Amino acid sequence: MEQLSLFSLEPKIERAVENLKLFEQAALQMNPEGYYLAFSGGKDSQVIYHLAQMAGVKFKAYYHITTVDPPELVRFIRKEYPEVIQTRPEMSMWELILKKKYPPTRRVRYCCSELKEHGGQDRFVITGVRWAESKKRKGRGLAEITGKGVPAVVLLNNDNDEKRRLIENCTLKGKRVLNPIIDWTDNEVWQFIHTYIHTYCELYDCGFSRIGCIGCPLISVKRRIWELERYPKYKQAYLNSFKRLLEQRAESQEEGKRKVNDQWKTAEDVYKWWLYGGEKKEEQVHGQIGMDLQTERRSEMPQREQTEIRGKSFDAWMQTFRKLSYEWEKVWKYGAADSMWADGITLNRIRQEMIQTKQILEHFGVNDGLSLPDEVPRSYMANEGEIREQAERAKQGYLQDEEYQFLCQMEPDLTNQQKDKTQIMITLGKVRNLIRAVEEDNLVVMREYGTEGQFSKQISETAKEIRRIPLTKRNVKSVRSESADNGSKEDWQLKGQMTIYDFAS
């Protein structure tokens, strides 16, 4: 497979550092700790760790222990990166196997979600994902947005799976993801390590090209056998879990809960199934016409169709370029779905991907019909006038809302514990962010918070929570004095209800 190197290492370092600085403010808005750096101890995570240091951005690195980690890797992290925060899963791999009632497989990788991907909720995450690390990562782009119950919406294209982007947004887990070395090659990663870091895990010198969980179902059978023979204690731990799994299944059958799969008699049976799966399928006879695709032998296909770059054919790259052109036009007219930064940043990122894709297409021999949009100011926002008008209407609506006025009145009279319980500061903070954005003409924030009535329900529910809380004597004095100053009785007390002052006395 042909691999193109579109940029030298130094420009890629500068671009990665620039991107880390660019989105730092967004990371700080999501959490005062800044970025959440996903650290595995492998070569890619080392690179992003040191790039974050070079950028001078605020971040904390986290290593998720999986319980099937190579011991050399664990020792390396403890020695070279003692400041990395290590977290343990709720269940070990062996407990998960019993809970799930079958081993992890290539198709059902519950181990990843349970052991590795549980961190970073509501954070801006930095990962070391790269296209070159997987055939599945070469079709994905710079940024994507995913949400609960809806398919992924591609905003910027370039994938360590083929659909990973420089920036990703997952509303399901509340994550935004930055992949600063998405387009780095293996050679560039090693060049950076030898130039700037000078140390790495010893396993890379022992035949490992990638470091992960021992026995991972994603690697080849030959590789898994080699790893498990290298670490016999882990192999035995898997066998012990498979033995307990069969005992568990037998107990379930005796209790009439389920039928047991007769193909598994011993732990070795489960182990072999886990390694090899079912029978190997017959391979296509060379030169034979495939009945499913009705295609000719590859050697008889046109040269352009035979060639793949980054695992994608000419047609696939053309489709990518057209999709990027469509996305650029959509963002230009209607704005980006993501609201953490201006549309100009998104547009220029899309344009950057279009340039890279065009260079690849030129390698295929295509030079015409690939027009690029002009670069736009980073502060550009689509439909500026509409955003301002809508935000102003929303602001006035909140200022005139009696429930919002009530929250503003009660804020100084609540204890810190009461504020935390009712989350009044979060509710007021959202409205105040909108008001401040209108005053500062911050279009990005106005678009995020400027929908009329967006927080009305939250304001109403917060007000109800506050009315249920008895006030302290200090609160009573404050409220009573305000009532006297106003020359009227507080009207938010329900008629006939026991007064909140009775609770405070």
Largest sheet features: 8 strands, mixed
Q: Helical content, roughly?
A: 40-55%
Count of beta strands = 8
Helix/strand order: HHEHEHEHHEEEEEHHHHHHHHHHHHHHH
What class, by secondary structure content? Answer: alpha/beta
> What distance separates the N and C termini?
80 Å
Strand order of the largest sheet: 3-2-1-4-8-7-5-6
Low-confidence sequence ranges? 1-7, 138-173, 278-302, 476-505
Provide the gyration radius in Å: 29 Å
The rough form would be described as: globular
Could you tell me the mean pLDDT? 76
Count of helical stretches: 21
**In what range is the share of β-strand residues?**
5-15%
What does this structure look like?
The structure is a single chain. The protein is an alpha/beta fold and 505 residues long. 49% of the residues lie in helices and 8% in strands. The chain is built from 21 helices and eight strands. It has helices at 9-22, 24-30, 43-55, 71-80, 93-100, 110-116, 186-197, 221-230, 232-254, 267-276, 303-306, 314-334, 343-363, 384-399, 402-410, 416-422, 424-440, 443-449, 456-467, 473-486, 500-504; strands at 35-38, 59-64, 85-87, 124-126, 141-147, 150-157, 166-170, 175-178. Helix 4 links the parallel strand 2 and strand 3. Helix 5 (93-100) runs parallel beside helix 9 (232-254), helix 9 (232-254) crosses helix 10 and helix 14 crosses helix 18 (443-449). It is globular.
Question: Mind sketching the topology for me?
Answer:
Elements: H1 9-22, H2 24-30, E1 35-38, H3 43-55, E2 59-64, H4 71-80, E3 85-87, H5 93-100, H6 110-116, E4 124-126, E5 141-147, E6 150-157, E7 166-170, E8 175-178, H7 186-197, H8 221-230, H9 232-254, H10 267-276, H11 303-306, H12 314-334, H13 343-363, H14 384-399, H15 402-410, H16 416-422, H17 424-440, H18 443-449, H19 456-467, H20 473-486, H21 500-504
Parallel strand pairs: 1-2, 1-4, 2-3, 4-8, 5-7
Antiparallel strand pairs: 5-6, 7-8
Helix pairs in contact: 1-3, 3-7, 5-9, 9-10, 12-13, 14-17, 14-18, 15-19, 17-18
